């Protein structure tokens, strides 16, 4: 019987894409039977280019897009997603920040949030034909180079987010989701309605909903490493039961079950952690290959910027 193995290859990030692309990995996973996984909510959004067996999106707790996919993007999700594949998954996965979706894919985050969408429908140049080119490339280095060139070309033509949206997302990310939305709005100098409208249009979720996902992503990285009550206090939850409810909402299980499952996340794939490290210091290892445990462990970590001189622009 074929053993269950995962070969994970981390690619290096281009400095010009910092803040837009958190990282890129190549994956070659083989299993003797179908593999079903639940993916908790997170603040990095996967763009997947697959050239082997398709990936099935079985269910979404807070979104839509069930079906069978090769190349697709998953928008900002305030809930968990269950996936399935059979036999083999060969793909390159790019992890975009919410601002990266807006800039690189050229569509407002609002149009992709809570959805899984085929890349052929969003960015045809990155669709299944592009995935076939990646599969035909003889090395992972060449695959990463093709992906990097394609992302740089799209980013160079993309529209920058509003200053206030860029700044507000940076504050939410820097505080690990502990920022108070009302305080950020006051500091921005704009009305609550204007900030919420622009942020939701470009990021995909409201500031309040984004704060919830970011806080969960940071807290879940500490689960199993610290007592649950300490995790709740450290990440700004009212109490342990508040954290437990959020874990149920975003992961579909209890904190203890989430820790026991050791579910892979974008951060475990990147060898990084929520916060500052993943935006500014990606592992520079374009040909680093290894076979990992089929249930990788999570990890843990913070960023801050000046208040922007806000400008008003379209999405």
List the helices and strands and how they pair.
Elements: E1 5-11, E2 21-30, E3 35-39, E4 45-50, E5 55-60, E6 67-69, E7 72-74, E8 81-85, E9 88-96, H1 98-105, H2 109-112, E10 116-118, H3 119-122, H4 128-136, H5 140-157, H6 163-174, H7 181-188, H8 192-203, H9 207-222, H10 228-234, H11 240-251, H12 255-261, H13 266-270, H14 276-280, E11 288-292
Antiparallel strand pairs: 1-2, 1-11, 2-9, 3-8, 4-7, 4-9, 5-6, 5-8, 7-10
Helix pairs in contact: 1-5, 6-8, 6-9, 9-11
Quick rundown:
This protein has 315 residues and is an alpha+beta fold. It has 14 helices and eleven strands.
Provide an overview of this structure.
The protein has 315 residues and is of the alpha+beta class. It folds into two domains: 5-159 and 264-292, Jelly Rolls; 163-258, Homeodomain-like (Arc Repressor Mutant, subunit A). The protein is built from 14 helices and eleven strands. Strands 10-7-4-9-2-1-11 form a seven-stranded antiparallel beta sheet. Strand 5 (55-60) and strand 6 (67-69) form a beta hairpin. The longest helix is centred in the middle third of the chain and has 18 residues, at 140-157. The protein is globular and about 50 Å long. The N and C termini lie far apart (52 Å). Residues 276-307 and 309-315 have low confidence and may be disordered.
